[in-house]
């Protein structure tokens, strides 16, 4: 099936994203080795590094600095920052600008993970309109004079009774963001159920800046359908590409009007696994053990649906070197075809959150008093851990 749906180029500051297909930042996933694999299959899109905690960057945490690395082939370096304290996020943005770390800054207001929201961060933060505006204003004020565009990633809200996306998107536009990405779920929905694409449509109608849609894109056809239904300017891919970096190639073909799809055999997937291990070794500066340990979660995704058996999966979990990985891949039956039965099925986390974790009294007001800010930030320990 071909598509008549087209995506127009997206202007982000001094750079034009020719095909606005976005690799969403995912913690522990979108370091430069995985971004490289996605880019090699995909279009001239936007491939965003995994979330960097502003406080950790300010404290020069070694892991944070490693996550800020880009491969020389990445001509447009896209970095996502997360923080709650506006002054700390501002300092982190200043480091990014002064040290020429990135060409684009995305701000994370979409993370639903309890350890983030219980501090008022991620998808909890837009509930406080003034705090949300303050973070955006400070980062845009630092980044804009340097020609670095700022975008914001948001969710629909905390739950169905506490939605924030209308206000948050408008504030982002007013404060100079170049685009907004909406993950069309609430915090309470976590990654469960189906995202509410009609919320994306609503923002497209309301805003003058581009809206990028996110949520439940498992196939190229899903990406085309999201654009068709919502009119969004681009699509962001998260869990759908876990273990399937070639999904970006499928999406590129779909928007080019081609019905060609990439359905790799088990042998071809094995080749990608080995290449991923090699790239991770470079990322970890030659430490093969760290590389193959990082690879483990990816292997589980790569092999999903293939009839390889529990023994094979367990063997990969015991690998300690690239040679070990190569030895296991060599045992594959290279001609086994990709399991199309799971091609359009959800991947990664799909559960609902049992409870939304928020700071005490967070929902009592849409604004923060001076005293509340003092309580939250004045005696703020420099916790720069990951």
Automatic annotation (TrEMBL):
Cross-referenced PROSITE patterns: UPF0034
UniProt record similarity statement: Belongs to the dus family.
Pfam families linked to this entry: Dus
Active site: 111
Protein's name in the database: tRNA-dihydrouridine synthase
Statement: the UniProt record of this protein carries the keyword ATP-binding: no
Main function: Catalyzes the synthesis of 5,6-dihydrouridine (D), a modified base found in the D-loop of most tRNAs, via the reduction of the C5-C6 double bond in target uridines.
UniProt domain DUS-like FMN-binding: residue ranges: 23-334
EC number: 1.3.1.-
Annotated InterPro entries: Aldolase_TIM, DUS-like_FMN-bd, DUS_fam, DusB-like, tRNA-dHydroUridine_Synthase_C, tRNA_hU_synthase_CS
Cofactors, names only: FMN
A GO molecular-function descriptor: tRNA dihydrouridine synthase activity
Keyword 4Fe-4S: no
Swiss-Prot/TrEMBL keywords: Flavoprotein, FMN, NADP, Nucleotide-binding, Oxidoreductase, RNA-binding, tRNA processing, tRNA-binding
Species: Alloscardovia macacae
Catalytic activity: a 5,6-dihydrouridine in tRNA + NADP(+) = a uridine in tRNA + NADPH + H(+); a 5,6-dihydrouridine in tRNA + NAD(+) = a uridine in tRNA + NADH + H(+)
Residues given in the record as FMN binding sites: 25-27, 80, 153, 183, 238-239
